[in-house]
Amino acid sequence: MAYEVLAGIVGGKEVGETLTDEDLATANIDALIASGSIKPITAKPKKDEAAE
Amino acid sequence: MATTTVLSNTVSVVINSVDLSDQVTNATINQQFDELETTSMGSTSRVFVKGLESSTITLDFLNSYVASEVYATLQAAYGTSVTCVMKPTTAAVSATNPSFTASILINNLTPINGGPGDLQTQSITFTCTSTVAIATS
Q1: Domain that holds residue B101
Q2: Which of A29, B14, B102, B130 has the greatest number of C-beta atoms within 10 Å?
């Protein structure tokens, strides 16, 4: 799972940068999402998959 | 005579991976362990041995309510233990800039504090739920 930094400096990354579960290994990820610090990056389905 | 002085204005404080350094006005790590008394018959003084570590971390914060700052970070972690990493400076960890890492229980907050014209601040002492691990590399 990957996460985008929404605000502040999280795991050494700045706004717009991407974090992985490995970067957040010792973090409470639910709390980071709840605080608006990060958001999960969900892969967009490919066009053909979306059409099915 | 060699003397090293270190200003405290560069201390780095990261809680639950969020860098809160620019919202911290004072930081203290108090490393300590329990003293277990082993004084026995024949002892000529009280005798103690080292027990479990029971360190604390005290931080003074400027209250800020936007995402990824003091209120949001601490309130979202309220009631849980999260990792706190502190360094004397923001430079890379080294023998002369060690990092201090501990798990802290977010068990008390002061989200509103201050009178008219005051800065909103809070001073919180967190109980460590782990040893304070020191790294130099």
Answers
A1: 8-135
A2: B102
